[in-house]
Amino acid sequence: SSGSDDEATPAGSTITFDGDGYNMVGGLVVDYGPSAPIGTNETHYNYDFTIADADISLVGPGSSATLLVYIDLFSPGASGFQVGTFTFEDENVVTEDDISDSYFFFSGEVETDTDGVEGGDLDGPEYEVTGGSVTVTGTGPEGYIITYNLITTGGQLTGTYTGPWIFIDATGE
Fold this sequence. Notes:
The protein is 0% helix and 48% strand. It has no helices and eleven strands. Strands 1, 2, 3, 4, 5, 6, 7, 8, 9, 10 and 11 form an eleven-stranded mixed β-sheet that branches.
C-alpha cells in the first residue's frame, strides 16, 4: 500500500470478539494502589483497565456502547504499576509463592449490548475471562497501549487499544 504511515489515525484500537470487530474509542485506568492479591502481604500493585466502543465516561444508561472489556491487573512490587505481560491465574489454586514476582490477573469480563437500542445500556450477555494474557506497554497512564489475547466464556477476544485514557486515582492518598 502507498501513503504515509505517520498519519494520526487510531487504527490500532480494534478489538475482535467472537469474530466481530469493534473500534474501541474510550479507556479508563483506575489506580487501586498496593495490593495483597492473596494473603495479607502487599506484594503487588493493582490497576483496572476498562475499554469501550463509546465514550467511557458515558458507559451505562445513555451510552451507545456495544462492547466493554474490563481487566483487573496486578504487577509485582507495591511501589507502583509496572508494564509487562499479565497472565490469567486461577485464584482458587495459586498460592502467594506462585504469584510472588508475577504479572497476572484473576478476573476480567466482556459486557455486550445486543438489543441495538441507541442510548441503551450494556444489557446483553456478560462473559467471564477464563484464560489468556494482556500486555501493557508505553508510559502511563495517558500513554498506555494494551494488547488483549483473552479466552472468555463467549469466545476469543484479541486486539490492541492505544487510547485515549481517563485516569482515576482510587488509592485514597
